[in-house]
Amino acid sequence: MKEITINPVTRIEGHAKVRINLDDNDNVESAHFQVVELRGFEKFLIGSAVEEAPRITPRICGICPTSHHIAAAKACDQIFGAEPTDTGKKLRELMMLGQFIHSHSLHFFMLASPDFLIGHDAPAEERNIVGLVKKSPDLAKKAISARKFGQRLTEALGGKPIHPTTCIPGGISNSLTEQKRAELLEMARPTLDIAREGWSVARGIMNNTDTDFGAVETAFMGIEKNGRFSVYDGDVSILSKENVKTGSFSGVEYPDYLNEYSEDWSYLKFTRLYNGEYYRVGPLARLNIAEEMGTPEADSGLDEYRETFGRFTQATLAYNPARYLEFLSCCERAVSLLADPSICGTDTRTPAEGVVNERGVGIIEAPRGTLIHDYSVDENGFITKCNLIVATCQNNYGMDRGVEDVAGKVVENGNLSESAANKIEMVIRAYDPCISCATHAIGKMPLNIEFCRNRNII
Amino acid sequence: MKIAIEELAGCSGCTIAVLDLHEVILDILNEAEIVYSPVIMDVKEPPDEIDIAFVTGAVRNEENMERLKNIRKKAKTLVALGTCACYGGISGLSMLSSNEEIFNTVYRGVDTVKEDGVIPTDVPPFTYRAFAVGDLVKMDYYITGCPPKEQYLKQIIPALLKGDIAELSRKSVCSECDRKMGSVEGWHLKRRYEGKPDREHCLLGQGYLCLGPVTFGRCNAACPKNNIPCHGCNGPSLDILREPCRDLYNMMVRRISDLTDRPEKEIEKELYDVSHTMYPFTIGSLIMEDKENSKIRDLVQERSR
Ligand code: SF4
Ligand code: SF4
Ligand code: SF4
Fold first, then answer.
1. Which top CATH class is A36-438?
2. ipTM
3. Alpha carbons B178 and B185: distance in angstroms, whole number
């Protein structure tokens, strides 16, 4: 049997490849999205003091570290019985918005858009942010500045733009000063202008979206708060593939709804609903689930989005405009939170005393979809068991089937041209998968080697 | 000038840290050409002639190993970028269990999977342990940090591209911290959730395990300034690296003992979960493990038994 591989899949976070198996007539027999890495956080967190989880788990992913930081912190709130103060919650939400603004603008402008703006047939060397700098320097500069605001926001609240550290059981360790608020607001407004302007680009992409591309039919899952798009809190809703609400959960009961399994050819697990149905998460899911974005401009954008795709859509490439609308909404929400002086409140944290519950489940919406951190601890708060369910596992089936769908269309006489390979990768990229998140490892019994070396630390 | 970024087992945070140079990236692109970086561009294999390659992440499987050897061959100058590459980073925590235990937990041991779940084998096999890249091939430079901070990358990268080395501070996190040393009485070690640290005084003096004294600086003491004790994400301080008989653990114990006037033995009794609180970023490093008084060997053996 002949095999074609695309290795590595590029412009995504982490390591993955695509393997296409051909039959004797050179037709596509099967194709898979294959993840070649695993780290094992679920194992190596065991034994750790649970309050360290918010500092360790961000290292699962350098693109959405805040999501892991906050999901772990929410689980700790429950374990220590410390519900965060109002200001604490707002600051955490604002930090999440920083995460979305950076991650979504990174994906939209720098990872996915080169396919749309430069062209998916363009030479590989040009189809990237560097090419975008050459082709549309103005747009590239705006993309850089939008992302910069997202990272500055995270840094201001989390201590660092990548791997923030400030969320602790019961809230957040530090308050926002009036001066810092003014500074951030000054950056937030022009970022909102960029988001607003960019909507016309996104709308253009939307009008040219092929709704059959990477087709797959699934149920959807995502958080909503009273029908609104929400990134920090709310209940998780499940919609069947016929658009019927079939479930809802908010914490420890999640294993009643979801199960996971693995395949021999990938380190990445698959998640499905308890009844065996597959589902997807992320921007497409959230926009299918939410009634409204809850911010004015994103809401009017949502109307246009729904004119194109309907109230409920399975179109894989609609992930891209959906992501854009979320970016717009997060910019609006950041401006409104920063415009309110109460965000500078100093009561940022409810004191924690000791373990109140021996289990805590933190659920939030990460940029790529619903994220679940589940910790069981002993009476002193040391982790005895841990389960992490990340967006990319939940989208694994969608990506895997999408890859096969497109492979079937673009493989010709047993060959895959470079631009056809990129089409397959476009399906994967639509999900903005995060392989580091998805793979959580290694080794034992070190070999003792005599070691003495001058390290050139610079 | 052709530059490349190769990603091994890590989180891509180091590549994002390079993007976090923001508009400075545009200046860099005027001077240098990025020829390979899978997170941001489509070129699938590093080309042959690379002037400077940055490697991020640790080595945990055979594919990582091959990629590392390959980029070493192709690059004139090879730079370990970030704490994973320099010291194994957080991936090193996997040293606390065997590969089998990890697979069993992930694919069979969590609440949402079945006990007879498939353990993948048609994938690049794990190496028997995690490695820092410098423990496997010769590196020309090391840039520490999880990830390295913007302010320093702005000084380091443009200089490297010109063939220079920026002269930068090599001090510890404490030297960048603005907290005052006060008198220390009735010291006892606190968990991080306990109490509210005051903003004026040294966290270590207040009972929080702050790794500032044993950690390489250049983060502007980001955590202590936000009322969070340092976790050591920049890796060991220079004095620890240089002296064979200095290790994170014994230096911390000595430091606390000096601060509190209590014998080292008593301090040691208060410490808990040393692998996650003191070694989370260095446990995969042979350099750190080979120190005569390192606790790493004990920690690894204890858990793998
Ligand atoms: S050093 Fe930190 S930021 Fe860099 S790859 Fe490793 S975990 Fe990620
Ligand atoms: S031990 Fe921590 S808090 Fe104290 S001076 Fe050093 S960095 Fe600052
Ligand atoms: S204070 Fe410590 S943990 Fe925080 S960023 Fe600096 S080195 Fe890392």
1. mainly alpha
2. 0.94
3. 21
